[in-house]
Amino acid sequence: MEQYTMPTKIFFGKAAIDILASLTFKKYYIICDPFMQKSHKVDTITEILKEKSATYEIFADVVPDPTIDVVTKGLEGIINFEPDAVIALGGGSAIDTAKAITNIYAKTVENKPPKLIAIPTTSGTGSEVTSFAVISDPTTKAKYPIIDNSLLPDLAILDAQFTLSVPASVTADTGMDVLTHTLEAYVSTNASDFTDACGEKAMRLVWDNLDKTVKNGSDETAREKMHNASCLAGIAFNGASLGICHSLAHAFGGQFHIPHGRANAMLLPHVIAYNAGLNEATEYCALARYEQAANLLGLKNGTPKATVHSLISRIKRMTKQFSIPQTINEYGIDPTEFIEAVPIMAEKALADNCTVTNPRQPALAD
Ligand code: NAD
Predict the structure, then answer these.
(1) If pLDDT is split at 50, 70 and 90, which confidence band does 31 have?
(2) CB 142 within 8 A of CB 164
(3) Residues near 59 by Cβ (< 8 Å), separated by ≥ 6?
(4) What is the DSSP letter of 67?
């Protein structure tokens, strides 16, 4: 027997943010990064809160790839403020920070713990509907995916107006993260009809809209579709979990401080080839799943291997078009430094939670 649950209430579409006005909480702790304050995006939220005479405090110290220190600092703030709701406004970094802070704080309060409201401003991580939070330790250069159902936000507000200002390079990186989520969830050993339903829809939405949002960030329709795709992909991988593209991206991204979606985009073609055994005599079960995904995206090309080759070529073409580096040289990483870090990164990737559901179990040598 299996179970599929999605307890987060999702509000989406134009003016979805207006739902905030109807919430009855009195004290809001807003967690975001400094850009959300400087760009006045947070004002959209605080205006609504002021209008209903709610009080709020802003913690705007979130950094990309949030660290243990940031979580600790935010925790001090929440303990002093004692809110009845937390608002996470930002990309995966802000939402993951808020999840960690709220979760730890909830364990210390005797009465009702605060509710968590996630408002994503990138279309990428799907963190607003996942039980994952990725926290980094700069001293070990490690990124730790923490997984627990208690991390799931109570409410997710998908209002694409917040994504219109995302620069093209971040749009591309985060969009490739969505595509990676759909494909990893699809070939995961935990995939089910339920996770496939969300993953397949998300995959097609990315295929049809990512390019549009990178070329024209003001395309509101495409932005909305990508925002929905990001959330649907989050629902898919929350049920199915992920695979070694993410394990490797955590290790590689943590070591060289590479934006998460970019690290995934660079690794994805290699992971597909490895999982499907494309360049080997043995055929792995993931080959058929990648073929199915490629067929869904209209890439049918004769044999299963030829079809999966087409999928890889298309992904490479996309990343090239988006000016995402294809190799460590193109990224500007020193090759000697990279080679020295390989054993450390391989060990971290092998121990990463996401490796468990990869369709092909790798050895350290792989
Ligand atoms: P991010 O949150 O780090 O943001 C990237 C950059 O974009 C930041 O500089 C931010 O200020 C900027 N930005 C965000 N919204 C913007 C907007 N509307 N306009 C202009 N600039 C904007 O990036 P991300 O890719 O969303 O999140 C990455 C983090 O999420 C990583 O730590 C990754 O490991 C984690 N992650 C979490 C999950 C999960 O399920 N919890 C899944 C995948 C990744």
Answers:
(1) very high
(2) no
(3) 29, 30, 31, 32, 73, 74, 77, 78
(4) B
Reduce the DSSP state of residue 85 to 3 states and report it. strand
Substitution site in 8, 31, 32, 35 for ligand 1 pocket (most atoms within 8 Å of beta carbon) = 35
Contacts 24+ apart (CB under 8 A), 37-41: 39/165, 41/89, 41/121, 41/162, 41/165
Nearest alpha carbon to residue 119 among 24, 198, 42, 232: 42
* Rounded distance between C-alpha atoms, residue 132 and residue 152, angstroms: 8
The overall pTM is greater than 0.90: yes
**Residue 274 confidence (pLDDT):** 97
Domains plus CATH for the chain? 9-163 (3.40.50.1970), 168-357 (1.20.1090.10)
CB atoms within 10 A of CB 159: 22
As for ligand 1, residues whose beta carbon falls within 6 Å of it are 33, 35, 64-65, 90-94, 96, 121-122, 124-127, 130, 132-134, 143, 162-163, 165-166, 170, 174, 177, 260-261
* Three-state SS at 59: strand
Q: How far apart are the first and last CA of the chain?
A: 33
